[in-house]
Amino acid sequence: MKVNYKTVFSKEIAKKIDKTREARTGKGIYKRRNSRNYRVVMSLRTYRKLFLQSPSTLSEYGNGYIVRIKPEEYFSDNSLTDIDIKLGVNAFVYYKSARDLRNFPPNENWTELVEIFTSNDNKKIEDHPEFVGEVAYFVNNTQPRKVSKICETGDASKLSAKEIEDYISEYNLKVGPKKKQAGIGNFDYDYCTDEEMKNVQYQLSYLIFAIEGMKDYLSNLFEESPGSFDSKLRSKSLEEFRQIYEKTEQHVIKYCRKHGLLNFDLLSDIGAISDTNQRPICPLCKQSVTAEEFIEVEEQAEGREEEDNTRSKIALMHINALQPGEFNHHTYNLAWGHRWCNQIQEDKDIDETVNGLIQMLKGNGYIVSNDMN
Ligand SMILES: [Zn+2]
Question: N or C: which end of the chain has fewer CB within 10 A?
């Protein structure tokens, strides 16, 4: 049996690893659900910073980028051509409120943004635009609402045959825009290359194997509930299951060694593993992560129980928070931690979070000292 990074994990755990490949969904101009290597949407502020301070970073977005500009920025900023902003080519003006429509009315010759090729479309034509149009509307507080097709969901997002024809003739296109429009890109801070995503998956898989008692825990689960595993495993005996476990683990270790993913000093520095026994810990509270927690469902507060809520106690945590232009979804910046700790961390770095917690404790009269140094 050929194995990969998740062969022997329960479906629940495998899903957890695979979800790390997905960028978050967004409303309006953001894509609904997508791989992290998709084209990104960045703010003018981020674009300007990168363009002026680190232009090579812009080319690291393998599937390109598009800059969203606020109407106010567009009409009051005279320096946009100095930083190579071209509406319809690498940027669009994004209207989100009735106030903006009133105070900064769009130019009459602007066309609404539409996507022609998704950024992972293998039918892309070289030098052919992947999108055209200068403006997108996602204004929900007017009567009626003013929302571009690209910002709509469901049937409302479909272009008519006539609209498609109009785009083809206006922009002299070889291929018309897609009939169904669904956002133009992902949040820039979620971006990650395919290659790095694969390394992340293997490193996270390794960390699961490194949890104390994982082999016995999964073997027991397999005996009790073979349906929790991939269908290829279900007909196997317990003995065979344990052999496949070892084979998968060896495969993961081999891949990780080959790709430099097992630097224990580094993993311990970021707080993904304990420096005494190299087993996974939560990067915030530094307590061990256990096999049970990985699979057990979080207990729900009384009165707030939801039958379909089956969140496990473990979440994926970023040590340095995701930031525009920083590519922080990468190996040696991710660890398995507690869901509660992850909620406390929100979108901050671990260091920042710890400092915040110290202030909270001090505010409550505790004396905080650090006996680790
Ligand atoms: Zn924790």
Answer: C
